[in-house]
Amino acid sequence: MDGEKPIVDSGDAFFDLGSFSNPNYRPGRGFVVCTLWYFCSLLLFESGWFPVTRVKSYLLRWFGSSIGKGLVIKPHVRIKYPWRLTLGDHCWIGQNVWIDNIEDVTIGSHVCVSQLVYFCTGSHDHRSPTFDLLAKPIVVHNGAWIGARATLLGGVVIHANAIAAAGSVVVKSVSAGKIVGGNPAQEIGTRVAAGNMG
Question: What is the pTM for the complete model shown?
């Protein structure tokens, strides 16, 4: 592309990670709240010994999440910043889900997020020697299903009733009612009701 130079193997690193400073990023809360959440998360969310969803819902709200009714949240769930998380009614969050939300993550109602799903709102500019941070929100609309071990990248919108198949890496938005799978995820089908099969 015009004005861009290819990176060649000169033996030297293109990145200077020692120069990374990220001065414009703000987590959204101060040091004390971030520290309190860190230890609360370790003890009650990321561990497996405390299974009570109702208390977890209360704590998430206390830390600034918008949470609908009927949340089911399994053990070993990691949420970076609860104040950047919105969950609709009757969401299921599976075991070992990681919501790495340095930007907002919004999940609608009746959404199933299966085990080991990773919401990745942050990345870096590979063209920048200082590895500048790039952060974009993720939105999952009502009735969607995110399959086990799927990864959603920043900027993705999963529209209503769509499915991201197990193990998929979703790098672009998914239209309503569509099924995507693979790495990178591609459309592999359309969702139909059981009575419409055959």
Answer: 0.92
